[in-house]
């Protein structure tokens, strides 16, 4: 835009004629990333705002816990793990409530609980109060995730998986936009700046709740839960899907935790390249998530995408495992290629699980089913940090290969598991 205005001053209206199509194209690119007007777009903006607040908090929270509450890293880890495990208890019950009484109100209440928990964190002054507030926050987050699923299903209709992909792009974009503000807060390194960021996160939950209230109410399902107290636990094909998704979650700590250490300790890749890994992944997700999700309009097509995800993960992780055997320049090029391939696998696996989770869950029990899927994801992430760190940093190159083979295995069994689920749904009750 600066160049355009400069050209306008020296060349007259000819630049205006060429600049307008360029501006139009930019608007078209941005508009194509947005859902259609209506509840889906409302969810997009609320997700963007909420993820920006979460990005501010996650980037600086550990420093706040250490410097302002006075906790040790070991206590932070223990407290968050305990709170996270307790938080899992809310997923399925709250999902069931959302099915029976409507997801909009359930989601709004969960968001307000998250806002209050973030506000409570500002008052925490000891390990006990930190764990108590964190437990409330995790319970509210689990409830929010469980009730958000059926709300997305109602807003997206038959294209709910595509809407969820757009929301994931919004989530990555929000976290990216929060980065500079978090960097400023870290450089200032004062109690007030950290508290302001936590307050902004609390405010983002409240704003998200207000935006959600602008959506039309989604009525509960009258027959929700009539086939037994916990219908999802008797649905063995869906439980298999939950297990597959938990295995795929072993990719979770690769980019943010394990790869920086691997690059720094075991390869000749320049250390400054580490700073490019997550931004490159984030930008690719924002640009490609929706595009690569198209065409997954049935459970089987989504299951086949999970196979592609497993193959991409295997190829990427094997390449990363052999970086230490390459000189500097080839290793750097190979790293960039591996990040691109890894991101493709991440996008395919995410889009696949979105379509499968919606398509294989009964309409009357979306919240209950998606709540259990969310719990499975959380358990997978908890396991992943210890498992992946051990495999990749202790075992070494062979560990990267084993991890890739594990993810490929999960991808390969998705197709028969999906066929099993479809047969189960088609069978008479």
Model description:
The chain is globular and about 60 Å long. It has 16 helices and no strands. It is mostly helical.
Span between termini? 62 Å
Shape: globular
Largest sheet: none
Q: Note the run of SSEs as H and E.
A: HHHHHHHHHHHHHHHH
Mean model confidence by pLDDT: 82
Q: In what range is the share of β-strand residues?
A: under 5%
- Overall number of strands: 0
Backbone CA Rg: 23 Å
- Text of the CATH class of the largest domain: Mainly Alpha
The CATH topology label of the largest domain is Growth Hormone, Chain: A
Low-confidence stretches are: 1-20
Q: Number of helical runs?
A: 16
Instruction: Assign the structural class, choosing from mainly alpha, mainly beta, alpha/beta, alpha+beta, or little secondary structure.
Output: mainly alpha
Helix content: over 70%
CATH architecture classification name of the largest domain: Up-down Bundle
Number of domains: 2
Q: Can you say what the CATH homologous superfamily of the largest domain is? A: MFS general substrate transporter like domains
């Amino acid at each position: 835009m600066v160049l355009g205005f400069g050209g306008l001053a020296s060349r007259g209206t000819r630049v205006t004629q060429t600049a307008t199509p360029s501006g139009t194209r930019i608007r078209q690119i941005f508009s194509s990333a947005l859902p259609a007007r209506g509840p889906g777009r409302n969810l997009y903006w609320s997700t963007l705002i909420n993820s920006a607040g979460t990005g501010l908090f996650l980037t600086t929270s550990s420093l706040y816990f250490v410097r302002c509450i006075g906790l040790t890293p070991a206590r932070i880890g223990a407290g968050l793990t305990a709170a996270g495990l307790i938080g899992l208890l809310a997923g399925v019950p709250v999902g069931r409530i959302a099915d029976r009484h409507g997801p909009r109100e359930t989601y709004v209440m969960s968001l307000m609980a998250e806002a209050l928990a973030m506000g409570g964190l500002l008052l925490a002054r000891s390990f006990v109060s930190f764990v108590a507030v964190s437990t409330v926050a995790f319970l509210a987050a689990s409830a929010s995730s469980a009730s958000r699923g059926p709300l997305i299903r109602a807003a997206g209709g038959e294209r709910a998986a595509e809407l969820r992909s757009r929301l994931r792009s919004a989530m990555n974009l929000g976290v990216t936009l929060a980065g500079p503000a978090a960097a400023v807060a870290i450089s200032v390194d004062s109690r007030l700046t950290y508290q302001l960021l936590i307050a902004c996160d609390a405010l983002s939950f409240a704003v998200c709740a207000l935006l959600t209230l602008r959506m039309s109410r989604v009525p509960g399902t009258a027959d929700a839960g009539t086939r037994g107290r916990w219908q999802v636990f008797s649905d063995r094909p869906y439980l298999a899907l939950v297990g597959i998704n938990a295995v795929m979650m072993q990719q979770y700590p690769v980019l943010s935790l394990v790869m920086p250490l691997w690059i720094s300790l075991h390869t000749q890749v320049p250390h400054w390249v580490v700073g490019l890994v997550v931004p490159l992944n984030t930008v690719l997700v924002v640009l490609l998530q929706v595009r690569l999700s198209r065409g997954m309009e049935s459970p089987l097509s989504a299951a086949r995408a999970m196979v592609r995800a497993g193959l991409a993960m295997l190829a990427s992780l094997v390449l990363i495992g052999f970086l230490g055997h390459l000189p500097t320049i080839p290793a750097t090029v190979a790293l960039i290629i591996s990040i691109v391939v890894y991101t493709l696998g991440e996008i395919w696996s995410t889009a696949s699980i979105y379509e499968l989770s919606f398509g294989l869950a009964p309409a009357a029990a979306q919240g209950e089913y998606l709540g259990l899927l969310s719990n499975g994801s959380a358990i997978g992430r908890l396991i992943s940090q210890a498992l992946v760190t051990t495999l990749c940093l202790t075992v070494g190159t062979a560990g990267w290969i084993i991890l890739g083979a594990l993810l490929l295995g999960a991808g390969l069994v998705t197709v028969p598991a999906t066929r099993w689920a479809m047969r189960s749904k088609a069978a008479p009750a």
